[in-house]
Amino acid sequence: MEGGWPPRRGVLLCLTVSLLLPGRGDTFTINCSGFDQHGVDPAAFQAVFDKKPFRPVINYSVPTHVNVSFTLSAILEVDAQLQLLTSFLWMNLMWDNPFISWNPEECVGLNKLTIAAENLWLPDIFIVESMDEDETPSDLTAYVSSKGRIKYDKPMRVTSICSLDIFYFPFDQQNCTFTFTSFLYTVDSMLLGMDKEVWEITDTSRDVIFTQGEWELLGINKASPKMLVGDNLYDQIMFYVAIRRRPRLYIINLLVPSGFLIAINALSFYLPAESGNRSPFKITLLLGYNVFLLMMNDLLPSSGTPLISVYFALCLSLMVLSLLETVFITYLLHLATTQPPPMPSWLHSLLLHCTCPRKCCPTAPHKGNEGLGLPQAQLPGLKEPVELVEKSPGPGEAEVAGGSGWTRAQREQEAQKQHRVELWVQFSHMMDTLLFHLYLLFMASSILTVIGLWNT
Ligand SMILES: *[C@@H]1O[C@H](CO)[C@@H](O)[C@H](O)[C@H]1NC(C)=O
Ligand SMILES: *[C@@H]1O[C@H](CO)[C@@H](O)[C@H](O)[C@H]1NC(C)=O
Ligand SMILES: *[C@@H]1O[C@H](CO)[C@@H](O)[C@H](O)[C@H]1NC(C)=O
Ligand SMILES: *[C@@H]1O[C@H](CO)[C@@H](O)[C@H](O)[C@H]1NC(C)=O
């Protein structure tokens, strides 16, 4: 019984008020008698629905204020080749319709009502950067308050153009713009505003974003310059959406394997140059790296030249260079042990300078030992030079066997040759060490660069 009272009183109030104030009919107050028994009477809103094609203002010199905001609910795709950002937005629009108003006390305590949006005038707000046709579902509804404030939200899949810079891939940040403006209404007819702060938009978007995908929302900024097209000035609000790529996938799939291959390549310098194992090992690594590059090609952005491509190219050339270095050292060793040419004096003094203080070539001491003509003491891995070194005096020995004995000159010549061999072997090892250190230096600097970029 009690529940029946307020509506009836509402109807009575409604009737009395409408009877007492006949003038309120001019201010478009909606007559909601009977809402408690029959639901909303379409006839009560018919006058509003009939005005749908026209901007709802009483005085046409007064612009309509539309408050715009949005919630970014997903970042679906970033296409670097087409320079497109595909995202999902909930666009929120709010404006006043002066032809709608009712007294909630008269109308069964009704404060707000949903009305099918197709029956209402809607502002033609669109996103300038959007490159897709609007796929908004057509049967949306809007909230209408008793004061005539209309709240209209629509979900939008926005494929917007965005200038993407993939130089720092996979540590890149992008700054995409959503410009909300009216398609037709100039500043005389429509003004845009905001009822929220941008940090509120950022916070709700962060809470709402479902995708834990590749992109992370960093922040949203806004600016609202007016746009002049011809003679017409349009109001607009620009939102700058900053997003950052989550690089973990790329670190695990691109940088780590590449780093391992480069590290193994660096370690392969410790394989003795004389053993002949080094170059096959490096060729295998080079092949492996090529296969890696082929497989990882589709993870890289398909356009532009990101720094990481340069890095991969550098790694590849580093491997090629180290292979060339191995070939060069092998050749040098071969030359040194078979027919050593006389060493230029500047090279000799450089060698002495480098090996005697034993400072600039840290590995020189133990390699110097090898070169000091003690073939018996060499490691088992160093068979080849042993043979070569022993073979080279071979013809001399044959001569000796054929002749009466070693003359002093022959002995001296032999000793000189031996000395030259030692010098050249020493030089080869020095070169090897030097190039190895250059290699390490480059490797360290590129790794530091990558880490530095990651941290910015
Ligand atoms: C409100 O509507 C009722 C019935 O629809 C009608 O009897 C009444 O006269 C209306 N009041 C006004 C002020 O138009
Ligand atoms: C309409 O609005 C303009 C500007 O606000 C004002 O100058 C004008 O008097 C208004 N007209 C009426 C009929 O209220
Ligand atoms: C728009 O936002 C401003 C500032 O928050 C507020 O004063 C105004 O009433 C709002 N207008 C509409 C139509 O929502
Ligand atoms: C995005 O770019 C605009 C200008 O193009 C700039 O005003 C804004 O600060 C940038 N935002 C970020 C987060 O870099």
Description of the molecule:
InterPro entries: LGIC_TM_5-HT3, Neur_chan_lig-bd, Neur_chan_lig-bd_sf, Neur_channel, Neuro-gated_channel_TM_sf, Neuro_actylchol_rec, Neurotrans-gated_channel_TM, Neurotransmitter_ion_chnl_CS. Its main location: membrane. Keywords: Cell membrane, Disulfide bond, Ion channel, Ion transport, Ligand-gated ion channel, Membrane, Postsynaptic cell membrane, Receptor, Signal, Synapse, Transmembrane, Transmembrane helix, Transport. The chain crosses the membrane at residues 249-271, 283-302, 308-333, 434-454. Residues 1-27 form the signal peptide. By secondary structure, the chain is an alpha+beta fold. It has two domains: 18-246, Acetylcholine Binding Protein, Chain: A (Distorted Sandwich), CATH 2.70.170.10; 252-384 and 406-455. It has twelve helices and twelve strands. The chain has helices spanning 5-20, 35-38, 42-50, 198-208, 248-267, 278-296, 307-338, 345-355, 364-371, 383-391, 394-402, 408-455; strands spanning 64-79, 84-96, 112-116, 125-127, 141-145, 149-161, 173-182, 190-193, 215-223, 227-229, 232-234, 236-245. A six-stranded mixed β-sheet has the order 3-5-6-2-1-8, with helices on one face. A four-stranded antiparallel β-sheet has the order 4-7-12-9, covered by helices on one side. Strand 5 (141-145) and strand 6 form a beta hairpin. Helix 5 (248-267) packs antiparallel against helix 6 (278-296), helix 7 (307-338) packs antiparallel against helix 12 (408-455) and helix 9 runs antiparallel to helix 12 (408-455). Mean pLDDT is 81; it is low at 1-26 and 359-402. The structure holds 2-acetamido-2-deoxy-beta-D-glucopyranose (4 copies). The site of one 2-acetamido-2-deoxy-beta-D-glucopyranose (NAG) has 8 residues, from strand 1 and strand 2.
